[in-house]
Structure prediction request, 346 residues.
Amino acid sequence: MVDKAQIQLWLNQYSHPLLPSDWADHCSRISASENGVHLVLPFACGELKDTLIAWAARDGVTLDVEIAVQPLQAATGQLLPKVKNIIAVSSGKGGVGKSATAANLAFALKQFGATVGLLDADIYGPSLPTMLGSHGQHPETLDGKLMQPVMCHGIATNSIGYLIDDADAAIWRGPMASKALQQLLKETAWPDLDYLVIDLPPGTGDIQLTLAQQIPVTSAVVVTTPQDLALADVRKGVAMFEKVGVPVSGIVENMSYHQCSQCGHEETIFGCGGAAKLAQEAGLTLLAQLPLHIQIREHLDAGLPTVMADPHGDIAQRYCQMAERIVVAMYWNIGKAALPIFMQPV
Prediction:
């Protein structure tokens, strides 16, 4: 392999469900030396990176893969100059595990080597401080203007839960809640971030519209459960994002099945196939099917999401696969809009 074109031709022989057939042609930072091939991927990834390195090794090539996340919307830099990409995690209704999904998504991306922030935008029911073990902490203000994010296991976070007393209720009308969201987002001194994950409140109200219309969201992820009641609300959530021009990376089906902690038996207590059918109807990707498992609840109650508490476990790996599919889909379907939709439902 002498020049870049030859290297790209060779790399395109590597086939993966998350990559189009000519994926290497779109990677501009490729070089070769006596020590092997150096490749820079513009999105965070884990399993994809590992299998790519292993594939190259079978050809006797040492492949060095560097992650340098690319910002996908220029407008993001105008409002939040240190944030490259914003991922909004939403749901049509409450109780579907949206916050747990958002927290584990953030920590999965961190595990890939990305710099990550997590904003709890659920003004009326903030839960991330408890899930992250940061309950009772408060953001400091060093310059009298911007809040310093609360660091949780290497992730920069902020939440209305840090700012109000546990016994107080945020009895605010829509405009006040929307203003609170804008303050949390804009008046936090976010560090340099590859991804800022925003945990939205359920539904399609003022807060969601404020985020979608005034903040340059790179992509949205919609969380649901398999039963028909939840899926009906998902359709509304997807329609809202479409109307305000926010791309949707796909659908995450949470509580897809119950997995017994004693014998491992799986039972679809909320039904099955609903999210896959909805994704197909909407032309979206089913990003993950996550279990209803006692371990997820135990880890979050202890203040440590599953991806951090049991990083090599099966459930953590499912979250990591979900995170990888989300950011890879973001890059190819937003950063390279001319490419066809290639990802298949899991």
Remarks:
- The domain at 74-335 is CATH 3.40.50.300 (Rossmann fold).
